[in-house]
Design brief:
Layout (H helix, E strand, L loop, with lengths): L42 H23 L3 H19 L3 H5 L2 E5 L8 H12 L1 H4 L8 H6 L1 E5 L1
Helix pairs in contact: 1-2, 2-4
Length: about 150
């Protein structure tokens, strides 16, 4: 999904009170809206998309590779990279109305899907979130998962 993420609005103050304000939401520092299109995708939607992606990978692995665990991981990774390149989102992202966009704007490019997918396959980077609910995999790849 091409497009430029707007520049950040006034940054929050540093310290513990930074996240206590009434107008504080994930993506605010990135210049993203609180709700609706282009807002940061929330946890429930992400979890559903991940479950769908693993379900598709498991089904393909079951049918083609006799449910080999390594094959399932490979299918999952391949689906992530191919769909991110073609549609800016995995099959689960597309079904649940989300897309991966680069913070710098424009096309996600070929390297971001590969880096992001490798880090997701390691699992831990996807579990380390910042205050904008971006996993370490998205921070390293320079991307953000937004609602469509």
């Amino acid at each position: 999904m091409p497009g430029r993420v707007p520049p950040p609005r006034t940054p929050r103050a540093a310290g513990p009170a930074a996240s206590d304000g009434p107008d504080d939401w994930p993506g605010r520092d990135l210049g993203l809206p609180e709700t609706g299109p282009r807002s940061v995708a929330r946890f429930g939607r992400r979890l559903l998309a991940l479950a769908l992606d693993w379900g598709v990978a498991y089904l393909i692995s079951f049918l083609a590779f006799d449910n080999d665990g390594l094959a399932t991981l490979g299918v999952f990774a391949l689906l992530q990279v191919v769909f991110l390149l073609l549609l800016s989102g995995s099959p689960g992202h597309v079904v649940t109305g989300m897309r991966v966009v680069p913070l710098a704007g424009g096309y996600v490019g070929p390297w971001r899907p590969v880096v992001r997918t490798l880090l997701i396959c390691v699992v831990v980077p996807a579990l380390v979130l910042d205050r904008d609910q971006r996993g370490l995999h998205d921070r390293i790849a320079g991307t953000v998962l937004v609602r469509v």
